[in-house]
Amino acid sequence: KAGVTQTPRYLIKTRGQQVTLSCSPISGHRSVSWYQQTPGQGLQFLFEYFSETQRNKGNFPGRFSGRQFSNSRSEMNVSTLELGDSALYLCASSPEGNVGYTFGSGTRLTVV
Amino acid sequence: QQQVKQSPQSLIVQKGGISIINCAYENTAFDYFPWYQQFPGKGPALLIAIRPDVSEKKEGRFTISFNKSAKQFSLHIMDSQPGDSATYFCAAATTSGTYKYIFGTGTRLKVLA
Questions:
Q1: N or C end of chain A: which has fewer CB within 10 A?
Q2: How distant, in Å, are the alpha carbons of A46, A99, A106, B35, B66 from that of B74?
Q3: Residue B101 in this model has a pLDDT that exceeds 90
Q4: A102 contacts chain B (CB < 8 A)
Q5: A102 - beta bridge partners?
Q6: Which of residues 65-84 of B touch A (CB under 8 A)?
């Protein structure tokens, strides 16, 4: 059974640019959540999607957005990148909700 | 109320020793408490989880102890091995309604050979 796949693994962007990250959940999992991981703030919840609907959102500015497609694949977009957006972005999937998360290996975003 | 406080920040244990990591929470609505293990360059992987209706859960060398009245839970790693060297995160979640985990700040464990 394939795990959670995140692409790309590494990304370098310039301040002011925008970026799109992709997540393919485990087959059959309908819930996809996104987290930002930084050394200073730890793992912080961004948002959760279930059946193409955003069910919950964390305390991040509107520059962070996401969506989920009918095949449960999800994308996360960050516009007008800032240096502080440099982080490991993790996607996690679960069958129905927040029990039994499986994380991907993440996308390491560096903003220069 | 949404915080999960984790300690210690780092831990060094001799091979064969017991590693103990503690977490405390405030929100009594939390009803699911998982522990995750993360190696460098990898995403967190679920290690073991507990519900508040039991006080202890054991899986191999890993044990969660849960104290509902104190709102605390801990991870015990028995017979710690160098391969256990990783960062460990506790988390708390409600299984209805909010659908998000609140993670502790992590404990970097190093097991000396």
A1: N
A2: 26, 19, 27, 9, 7
A3: no
A4: yes
A5: A93
A6: none
